[in-house]
Amino acid sequence: MVKPEILAPAGDFVALRAALAAGADAVYLGLGSFNMRQRASANFCKDDLPEIRSIVGDKKIYLTLNSIIYEGEIEEVEELIKYAKNYVDAFIVADWGVIELCKKHDAVFHISTQMSCSNSVAAKFLKAQGAERVVLARECSLSEVKKIIEEADIEVETFVHGAQCVALSGRCLMSHEAFGCSANRGECHQPCRRRFLVKAVDLYTDKEGKPVHESDTEFVVEPHTVLSAKDLCSLAFVDKLIEAGIRSFKIEGRARNPEYVKTVVSAYRRAVDAVAEGTYTQALVSELTEEVKKVFHREFSVGMYYGRPGVDQMTDSEDSLATTVKRHVGIVIDYFAKAGIAQVKVQDHEPMRGETLQIHGKTTGVEEFVLGEMRRDEEVVTKAERGNWVTFKAPRCRVGDKVFYIEEKKELNS
Question: Residue 384 is part of which domain span?
Answer without folding.
Answer: 324-413
